[in-house]
Structures are given as structure tokens and as C-alpha cells.
Design goal:
Order of helices and strands: HHHHHHHH
Number of helices: 8
Helix content: over 70%
Radius of gyration: 22 Å
Length: 169
């Protein structure tokens, strides 16, 4: 027998509340992910719109650091070092992460501030001891070789894509 009367109404209210709670929790996170994905997808055509999308992503999920990482990465790729510095420092304030320190090391090396670059790279290495890019950059910093962050990031992306596609064969 199916419940009738107040029991049926209470069950439907509880179900509705559970669905509403799930939507409130999941929809902003989902939208934030989509804004970050869209930012990278439209970067080649419109860096300005890509950066706007990272801002939207941050608004939808203010606890997630990915929008700041995306903003910093896009800013590096477009040569906006000041914005990149700000975004990566904001990401670190939210959650200490190797990637922000790595990118800050690249920016510092580009500006020939090698002592700061080495400090950032040491922190990146402490947070992720397995990334081969950290070791490559460390060698360049020992030689005090300036680094073009955008060019290095592009080379890393090419290398990752190449190793991924060849591993799939």
C-alpha cells in the first residue's frame, strides 16, 4: 500500500529538499568547470574573453583554485606578467600548490630575478617531487638563463600531448 495523506506530503517535501540541496551544491561547481574549459578553448581567438571566463568561474566556485590557475596560465601565455603574478599569488593564498610556485619561478627567471626564481622552484619541488619540468627549469636557473614562460609552457604542452598520443597507440 502507498502512503497517503501527511506521510506522502512529507516524503515529497523531503525528496524535493534533497534534490534542491544537490542542485545548489553541484550546479555552481559544474558551471565553474565549464567556464574554465571554455576559457582555454577560446584563448586563441579571444584572450580577453578567456580571462573574463576565468573570472566567471571564480564567481561560481570561490573555493576552487582552478580559475586562478587558468587566469595565471592565460596571462602568462598572453604576456601579462602582472596579472599572472596576481593570479598565482591568489591561488597560493587559497591553497599552496606546486603549479603556482612553478609558474612564479618562470616569471621570476624571465625577469632575471634568479634568487626569487630558485626559491619558488624549491617550493614547487617540495610540493611535487615527480614533475620532470621542475628539474629542467632548475638546470636553467643554475646557469642563470632567462626563461620565456609562455614558450616553456607551450613546449611542455607539446611534450605532454606527444607523450599522451604516442602512449595511446
Amino acid at each position: 500500500p502507498r502512503p497517503k495523506g501527511p506521510g506522502l506530503i512529507a516524503g515529497r517535501v523531503a525528496l524535493g529538499a534533497a534534490v534542491a540541496t544537490a542542485l545548489v551544491a553541484l550546479v555552481p561547481a559544474y558551471l565553474s568547470v565549464r567556464w574554465v574549459e571554455r576559457a582555454f578553448a577560446q584563448l586563441p581567438a579571444s584572450p580577453r574573453l578567456a580571462l573574463e571566463d576565468t573570472g566567471r568561474a571564480a564567481l561560481w566556485n570561490p573555493l576552487w583554485i582552478e580559475p586562478q590557475l587558468a587566469e595565471g596560465t592565460i596571462a602568462v601565455d598572453t604576456g601579462d606578467q602582472a596579472r599572472a603574478l596576481s593570479a598565482f599569488h591568489e591561488a597560493i593564498r587559497r591553497e599552496d600548490n606546486w603549479y603556482s610556485h612553478f609558474e612564479l619561478a618562470l616569471i621570476e627567471a624571465h625577469a632575471k630575478r634568479f634568487r626569487h626564481a630558485r626559491a619558488e622552484l624549491r617550493r614547487a619541488h617540495m610540493l611535487d617531487r615527480s614533475d620532470p619540468a621542475v628539474a629542467k627549469v632548475a638546470r636553467r636557473l643554475r646557469k642563470k638563463t632567462p626563461i620565456d614562460p609562455a614558450a616553456l609552457n607551450a613546449a611542455i604542452r607539446r611534450e605532454i600531448n606527444t607523450s599522451f598520443t604516442t602512449a595511446q597507440r
